[in-house]
Amino acid sequence: MKSQCFIMQIATEDILLKVTNVCALCYDDIHMGDTIHYDTQRYHYLCQSCQEQRSELMNEECKIIEDEEGGLFC
Ligand SMILES: [Zn+2]
Known about the structure:
Blueprint: E1 6-10, H1 13-18, E2 35-39, E3 44-47, H2 48-57
Antiparallel strand pairs: 1-2, 2-3
């Protein structure tokens, strides 16, 4: 896992109200206390499972190796 690409955080009321309350990829609801991951390259929050999928596709520079248009993500 390339931990420098993401900042792991616990969702707080502040984040949910001021930033987002859904995952930027799958649009799943984020709830207070959930583990979320801030993508430091794309400046959005991902849920746990999207972060895992993403990090598998990333190279060491946090770049997506696969073509995002390929329909790999829900
Ligand atoms: Zn997600």
